[in-house]
Write a sequence for this structure.
């Protein structure tokens, strides 16, 4: 039998209700904060990701699913959404009417990482981006949005981590100082860090290899070397978080795995997931729109790992399956045809109804009704059809009432609506 691809997964009925609940909660929140949905393609030209995420990042160096199409163009399954949203913002000149645009998108991403709990090769993100706002208020808004979503989903074991990654004014000098320092301890660094210390020294700061962590006990932090403008920006963000009483930690080692970031970077970390502790991550990328050929517009956004969030929310024993309003237990061919008609009519009216398609005993049909969590069961056999009355059983109270078959849909709809 052909199995699914390693690192990919099915989201089965039973779990998909939980996903729908999370998605609905997120979409409701985005809509009240006036974010508009954008749907971007699953595949883009490889160059888009290479240029925006960065040539020396893990994602671009080794995790992208890239293929050559018949015309020898290199195409890549999207490993994240930001690059595509920036491309779309530029391509459709969305900045022309108003540079300030707020977007959200939800969908699958692809990275060829080593699969483990909380880390997949196809995973889903809930993504939000704000374009055209240089003010730190946009940073605060996104962090509040994330925090509110966690509250609404009852996710409590989370911590907001923030840092500043500076800007082209202040970062180069810091990077140079860091590289000099790293050159002094290069014999203690892992092979990966030795390779990236010149081009991407900041990544060494969050290397998980203990030897690299130990190599620099107290590395200089970029946050202590910011220019005045970056420093003011960061202080305004943290000032607002204080004012809004949103707990946060300034994490000087937080550098993020994508190269486009400037200034504020943040993550939501959790203890509920073992090694994969980041539920969401994001930050400012003020230079990316212009680097990809657009106008000089600032931007900031985040992405939540949907799979990880679902894992945490699913740890509670809440049942997200919707109960079934009505099951029709039909006995005999005539009753079954009637039941089918009624099921279709009720479905069209928006009232969920199920029945047994095959000839089965009443006992077996009642068992099925119980399994489907039916709130009511309409019992009808050929005798009931003859008498013009069926039995409606309330499964919670175990009481029964007779319902005339004439105007049955209206009568049943009324009884069901009275219950809810
Ligand atoms: P990222 O930190 O690469 O940022 O991913 C965001 C979140 O996606 C992570 O915190 C994690 O929860 C989830 N995630 C990443 N990789 C995997 C995986 N292999 N399996 C399961 N979950 C995963 C970005 O993607 C940026 N585009 C975020 C952003 C938006 N920055 C600005 N705007």
């Amino acid at each position: 039998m052909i199995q699914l691809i390693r690192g990919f997964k099915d989201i089965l009925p039973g779990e998909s209700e939980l996903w729908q609940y999370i998605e609905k909660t997120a979409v409701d929140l985005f809509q009240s904060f006036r974010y508009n949905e954008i749907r971007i393609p699953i595949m883009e030209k490889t160059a888009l990701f290479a240029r925006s995420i960065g040539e020396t990042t893990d994602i671009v160096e080794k995790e992208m699913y890239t293929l050559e199409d018949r015309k020898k163009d290199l195409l890549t399954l999207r490993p994240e959404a930001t690059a595509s949203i920036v491309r779309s913002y530029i391509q459709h000149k969305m900045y022309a009417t108003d540079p300030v645009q707020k977007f959200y998108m939800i969908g699958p991403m692809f990275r060829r990482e080593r699969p483990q709990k909380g880390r997949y090769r196809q995973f889903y993100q809930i993504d939000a981006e704000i374009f055209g706002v240089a003010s730190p208020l946009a940073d605060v808004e996104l962090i509040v949005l994330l925090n509110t979503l966690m509250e609404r989903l009852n996710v409590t074991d989370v911590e907001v981590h923030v840092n500043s990654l500076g800007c082209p004014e202040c970062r180069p000098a810091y990077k140079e100082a860091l590289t000099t320092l790293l050159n002094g301890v290069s014999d203690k660094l892992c092979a990966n860090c030795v390779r990236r210390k010149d081009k991407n020294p900041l990544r060494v700061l969050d290397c998980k290899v203990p030897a690299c962590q130990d190599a620099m006990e107290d590395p200089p932090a970029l946050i202590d070397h910011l220019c005045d403008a970056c420093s003011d920006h960061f202080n305004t963000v943290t000032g607002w978080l204080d004012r809004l009483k949103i707990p946060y930690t300034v994490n000087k080692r937080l550098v993020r795995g994508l190269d486009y970031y400037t200034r504020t970077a943040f993550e939501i970390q959790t203890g509920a997931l073992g090694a994969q502790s980041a539920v969401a991550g994001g930050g400012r990328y003020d230079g990316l729109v212009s680097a990809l050929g657009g106008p000089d517009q600032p931007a900031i956004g985040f992405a939540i790992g949907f799979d990880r969030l679902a894992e945490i929310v699913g740890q509670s024993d809440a049942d997200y399956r919707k109960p079934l309003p009505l099951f029709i237990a039909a006995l005999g061919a005539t009753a079954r045809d009637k039941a089918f008609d009624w099921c279709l009519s009720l479905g069209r009216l928006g009232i969920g109804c199920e029945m047994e398609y095959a000839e089965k005993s009443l006992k077996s049909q009642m068992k099925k009704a119980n399994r489907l969590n039916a709130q009511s069961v309409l019992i009808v056999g050929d005798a009931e059809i003859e008498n013009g009355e069926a039995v409606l059983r309330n499964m919670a109270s175990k009481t029964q009432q007779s319902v005339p078959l004439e105007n049955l849909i209206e009568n049943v709809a009324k009884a069901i609506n009275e219950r809810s």
